[in-house]
Structure formats: C-alpha cells, structure tokens
Amino acid sequence: MHNIITRIQALNWDSARDHLHQHGYALLPGVLDAAACQTLIHQYPQPELYRKTITMERYRFGLGEYKYFTYPLPLVIQQIRETVYPHLAPVANAWMKALNIPGTYPAEFQALQALCHSKGQTKPTVLILQYGEGGHNTLHQDLYGDLFFPIQLVLFLNEPGKDYTGGEFVLTEQRPRAQSRAIVLQPRQGDMLLFTTNFRPVKGSHGYYRVAMKHGVSSVHTGQRYTLGIIFHDAA
After folding, report:
1. 36: closest CA among 84, 85, 66, 77?
2. Residue 63: which of 187, 204, 219, 209 has the closest Cα?
3. What are phi and psi of 123, to 5 degrees?
4. Are 217 and 136 in contact (CB under 8 A)?
5. Which residues 6+ apart lie within 8 Å of 97 measured at CB?
6. Are 198 and 213 in contact, with CB atoms under 8 Å apart?
7. How does strand 164-166 pair with strand 151-156?
8. Which of 31, 89, 135, 147 lies most in the core, judged by the most C-beta atoms within 10 Å?
9. In Å, how far are 38, 74, 87, 96, 105 from 79, measured between CA atoms?
10. Strand partners for 140
11. How many CB atoms lie within 10 A of CB 121?
12. How far is CA 135 from CA 54, 57, 124, 182, 224, in A?
C-alpha cells in the first residue's frame, strides 16, 4: 500500500473537522487498501499480538469477539494512531472550551500517552472485532479510565454486501428533553470513521450544551465482519 502516513496527511481534514463539529462523526473513504485490510484480518488468530480476548455474550455486550492489542502495536496501527491524533486534538480542545470543561489535550499523541501513563493508564486500547452471523454490539461508550480523549476511530476491514450483510454501524444521539436520534452507516472496506467517544457540544439559543452519543453494531445477517478500533487514550 502507499505509505499510510502520506495517505492520512492527504485527507481532507478541514472537511472532516467540520463534520465532527456539526454531527459528531466524519467518514473518510479509502484510508486502508485491501491488502492492508487483509493483513490485519489474517493476523487475527496470532495470540502474541494481543493482551486480552473478550467474548461479548459473556458480558452481555452483544454477540461476537474482540481482542485488545498488546504493546508494541503493529507498525501500521501505531502510525495511524500517531498521525491521526494531531488532526483531532484541536476539535477536542474546542469541545472542552465550548462546554467549559477544564483542561486541554496536548497537540501530539506521545504527550497524550505520557499523560495517560502518569495517571496509571498504561494498557493499549486498540482492538480488532470479529462478528459472525447474528453478531452485534450493544450501544456503548469506550472510556477506560478517568482520562479519555473524546474522539476515536474505526477502520472497516472487509466489504459489506460481499463479505457480509447487515452489520451497520449505529450512532445514537441523546439531546436533553428529546427522543434519541439514530444514525446508521455502512462504510466500505478501507474506510475510516471518526466519531465521538462520549459527547459533543451543540449550540442552542443560550450557548452550547452537551449531547451524549453512543455507538454499536446492528446484527450481521450473513458472513463475517471485521473492524479495527483505535482509541487514543490508554486504559487503567
């Protein structure tokens, strides 16, 4: 594949940041090529890459399985984490300012990681998810500790309609004193979806207010669905 750092830097980040501000998510197509996606899928059975495996139905998280990577991360994942983060830090800091939440996020990923480690959050949170027929993920938020970065991403590793059917990505938005709104997406292989980990600010008539968001996956009807989730903060 083309150098992943070059590919990420060439994305339309102004548009992505605008969409995050307006909607709480942004879809960036074609970030990983098919070969890179297949490599990550083929590595799924290799136990030395992972620190923990979660069977989702055991915890009533859904139906499927995911694995947390261990450090050191595979190079391509480390490069994505380090290269994407600086484009998102200004959005996160704007959100904190709009909602009058104290503190700012550092401009570079290494500084965020050092801050996590200083608070005892030292475990990697990058994970790969596998769903078979009937697999799904209940609505949730990925926080992992007192310090969390408010934006995360998922990379879609195989092709809907070809490798699997169903399995849509679902976001829900809960505004105060209103019914929840669902956003249903079906990105293609190699696409990258950025979305809020927990909340986003929305401007009302009296200034900004906080809107909670959760995410999940609808039921897979046929085939197998793989995604790579990249959370920027480490876990306690």
Report:
1. 77
2. 219
3. -95, 135
4. yes
5. none
6. yes
7. unpaired
8. 135
9. 18, 9, 13, 26, 19
10. 215
11. 19
12. 14, 10, 24, 19, 9
Kindly give the interhelix angle for 109-118 and 75-98, rounded to the nearest 10 degrees: 80
How far apart are alpha carbons 119 and 137 in whole angstroms? Answer: 29
Q: Which amino acid makes up residue 129?
A: L
In order along its 236 residues, the chain shows pLDDT tens digits of: 459 999 999 999 999 999 999 999 999 999 999 999 999 999 999 999 999 999 999 999 999 999 999 999 999 999 999 999 999 999 999 999 999 999 999 999 999 999 999 999 999 999 999 999 999 999 999 989 899 999 999 999 999 999 999 999 999 999 887 888 999 999 999 999 999 999 999 999 889 999 999 999 999 999 999 999 999 999 99
pTM confidence score: 0.95
Question: Cα 124 to the chain's mean position, in Å?
Answer: 14
Which of 68, 72, 36, 74 lies closest to 192 in space, CA to CA?
36
Structure tokens at 196: 């809020």
